[in-house]
Amino acid sequence: MTMIWRWWAYWPAWSGYAAAAFSLLYGGLGLYWWAGGDGFPFAPVDPDHASGSILEGSRVEVVAPVIAAVGLLGAIVALVMTRRARPGRLSVGLVAFGWAMAGALVLIVPDYTLITLVAFAPLLLVFAFTGVPGDQAGVGDILYWHRTNLIIIFVGGLLWAAATLAYRRRVRAACGHCGRRHGAGDGPARHTLLRWGRWAVLVACLAPLPYEVTRIAWALGFPLGVTPDFLRMMQDTPGMLAVGLGCAVASAAGGVLTHGLVGRWGEVYPRWIWFKAGKRVPPALAVVPASIVSVTIIPAGLMFLWTPEVRGTWALYVPSVFWIAWGIGLGVATVAYHLRRRGACRRCGSGHVSDNGQDGVLFRLGSLLQVHRSARRRIGYDGLRGRPLV
To answer: Superkingdom of this entry's organism (predicted)?
Structure first.
């Protein structure tokens, strides 16, 4: 576990090479499919094994050469980003290309597969040992190639996002881990971040309400937004309404947890958690799951913009489109929470003392040992003049 953490801590150094490797390999697959190889993941298949990707059902002779060209170009761009970090027009173009790649691979190409994995991960783990109930032959009938490919693409998009962020920080002469520059301040004030976070949390809590209301109504027998025949079809399909109700309940519970991004209990454990009461909540405990949900719910909502099959029934279409606002609101609230809670950077020593009291002071003193000699001299001088070391 320690080795994995140390490896992850150096993500600004290796993310560019990882993005280049992904682009090269996937571009090579594009050449293979263009040459007539099997396994083109967007080819038309039976409805039971099709994905909701924007590329689903596309022609291999059209899409495969584009995949090959973009993949090979991406490998070159990613390698250039790891070698060159000087401001200029080229750096602007590289950053624009990197964010375009990340956005397309994370938000545009995938479908609802990622949020489904997040919501049903515990069940999939159980199904791997007990088998999938119903007509499915196994987990392979759930994670078939058209869906697995979208997971691979999503991971590649995350690599591109990390590589682009690291490159942008190097160009700005900022810390690769926290993005701060010495002498440039610590960003927006805490009360400003809290205000932004509250508005974002409001959006994130209101956006999924149409989905929750319709699914609960169906479970109670009310054909809200659907025809009575469609409701009877769902009632006759084992588990269909139960899954919808479970997702609605999970969404509502997530809305409650989302309030922790702006509430005091999101920073200090409340009294009803007796074994942790009064202790500091680790920021990662909120940032990691909220980030995962925010970046996986957006492509699920975007998918319905180019899925005409469900547009005749507004209760299937409209509530899911609001997931886009849900993901954006949750993402903004998560970023505001992270910026508000982060302490001094372990790498460069920049930033405020952590909100963990005495432990935060010790953490700050320890991080100062890693600062460049000139920076330490400047900070020490300010301390002698009576200025706070934050």
So the answer is: Bacteria
Residue 284: alpha-carbon gap to chain centroid: 14
Joined tokens for residue 88: 């200029």
DSSP string, 79-118: HHHHH----SHHHHHHHHHHHHHHHIIIIIS--THHHHHH
What are the pLDDT digits (tens) for 146-181? 999 999 999 999 999 999 999 999 998 888 888 888
Q: What are 280's strand-pairing partners?
A: 268
Give, to the nearest 10 degrees, the angle between helix 11-34 and helix 89-103: 70
Question: 244: which 2 tokens?
Answer: 């919808």
Joined tokens for residue 96:
């624009």
Rounded distance between C-alpha atoms, residue 243 and residue 215, angstroms: 9
Measured CA to CA, the distance from residue 61 to residue 67 in angstroms comes to: 11
The SS3 of residue 268 is strand
CB atoms within 10 A of CB 369: 8
Quick check: helix, strand or coil at residue 356? coil
This prediction has a pTM of 0.84
Task: At 248, list the tokens.
Answer: 């609605």
The token pair that represents 170 in the structure block: 């190097």
Look up residue 49 and give its amino acid: H
Neighbour count for residue 108 (Cβ, 10 Å): 18
Q: Which amino acid is at 47?
A: P
